[in-house]
Amino acid sequence: MRVLLIHSDYIEYEVKDKALKEPEPIPEEMKKGRMEEVLVAFISVEKVDEKNPEEVVARAVKEIVEVAEQVKTKNVFVYPFAHLSSELAKPSVALEVLKKVEEGLRNAGYNVGRAPFGYYKAFKLSCKGHPLAELSRTIVPEGIVEEEVPEALKKEETELVSYWYILTPEGELIEVDKFDFTGHENLRKFVNYEIAKNRIAEREPPHVRLMLEQELVDYEPGSDPGNLRYYPKGRLIKSLLEQYVTEKVIEYGAMEVETPIMYDFEHPALEKYLNRFPARQYIVLSGDKKYFLRFAACFGQFLIKKDAIISYRNLPLRMYELTRYSFRREKRGELSGLRRLRAFTMPDMHTLAKDIEQAKEEFKKQFKLSMEVLEGVGLTPEDYEVAIRFTEDFWKENRNFIVELVKIIGKPVLVEMWKQRFFYFILKFEFNFVDNLDKAAALSTVQIDVENAERFGITYYGENGEEKHPLILHCSPSGAIERVMYAILEKQARLMAQGKKPMFPLWLSPIQVRVIPVSGEYLDYALYIAGKLEGAKIRVDVDDEDDRLNKKIRKAEKEWIPYIVVVGQREKENGTITVRRRSDGKQYETRIEELIREIKSQTEGFPYKPRPLPLLLSMRPKFRG
């Protein structure tokens, strides 16, 4: 079943003609209708619903009631709308389902209207236009699900009730439909995405074209969808990001470990955790044993901590692994370039804290760490939106703490609140990048976990020698590395749409300097300059191909090269270079030592790796035709 929910000032309709040979018989008064202050449910009953219509009705009623409660209306109008699907149920089944949905809503205490089934109708409505006013839902009978789905994911999709607010740096908690989004358009897009929960990519996001054009990443037809291949330049960027985040986390105080990617499905603690974590797993059979591929570093780190002897003096205890890879069987329609994958690289730190006060202190530090990490890859708070999620009780007891987090970020954030704790955590934040298709993807995140220390038998010895269960913070200060690449590329696509030049942060640029001799006569001087740069640990290449100078410069521009160095007779005689700087378009003549100083001042403190391709362009293969 497909459901489109529109919160409206009114809806009115009028029957015009038969759409089916045998439409629903209706009395004269049902040929026209109107309802005001109403939640309109446009519904397509689909072929798959025939397998279990009772379940579909029950879930549809629950979804509609949940939204009606959120928009605070007791009026619901059921409108048959075949245009939401191309796989429609038989008319007899569809009419029966619609009538039962109407009956279920009425039994739930709602004033319900329904448009007749099987007719062409003219209709008018006036959508209220707030973030909750337009929502879509897809309801699938449980019996047709082919893959094994954890209980947590099923319950999240069917039982979780969220209350949405905007929290300002001044501490105002405002219902989303009452917040003035003027000046916060990106936040409005993020709110709409989160509430609608539509993760399907209707078209290809712009970063996909860029990752292919720049020969960074490509789809791998020989693997499962959502598993990608990385060409040399893409692998360099990914590797530098991995190294950068790892260094920041270790500098923060984490101990790096390594754990398996495969775990026993029947391990008692793991089995329980699987059913609390809303993610689909890859299943691996080895003989008669069933294993799952990890979807995070939690399991390995928890099992290490379980076997460790830990004192209160050791807390907070931070452990870290860069998981290459973590695996989640995301829905095929949600796979989208680098935004959502089935195999991804996740920097994963878990911190043991002795009590809630220590956990909150760590949470705030890791909030700031995440901001610092994203700033290093070129993403400022202007580039992402913040979601903070917690229970109502946590908000009442820790309001000042949460407001302090919002003050740190310095702008309004989205709040998702639950009446009771649904997940294993009581508090979570995410920094979310909103892309050029208005889809959001979580980058940095931290959670305070109150369940898994006990579930896995993790304890520490208190001051009096008593054993206690710590709290656990789950932290990824950047989010998946692939998703960071996605955010960087989507940001560049946005800049290009504004007429600005795209470029990577200088420390991430696969080639930082291209040396172009004006002719083959000056190739030796070009190689001398390249040698100087390479000796200073700057990634440089030389365009030795037999092209005109302008064409070589255009080629370097298309590859987003930050510095183009041109050398000819004058430069060789004077021992200088002519530089084109991409960041501001400036062209100037200088000495090589000055350029080295300029580049090193911008890349200091960031990791370095050598050039990923041959020095001479003439020696390079082309990875995409």
TrEMBL record:
Matching entries from InterPro entries are given as: aa-tRNA-synt_IIb, aa-tRNA-synth_II, aa-tRNA-synth_II/BPL/LPL, Anticodon-bd, Anticodon-bd_dom_sf, DTD-like_sf, Thr-tRNA-ligase_IIa, Threonyl-tRNA_syn_edit_dom_arc
Q: How is the cofactor bound?
A: Binds 1 zinc ion per subunit.
Which is an annotated GO molecular function term of this record? zinc ion binding
Tell me which CDD domains the record gives.
ThrRS_anticodon, ThrRS_core
Q: Which Pfam families match?
A: HGTP_anticodon, tRNA-synt_2b, tRNA-Thr_ED
Which GO CC annotations does the UniProt entry carry?
cytoplasm
Q: What is this protein called?
A: Threonine--tRNA ligase
Q: Which organism is it from?
A: Pyrococcus yayanosii (strain CH1 / JCM 16557)
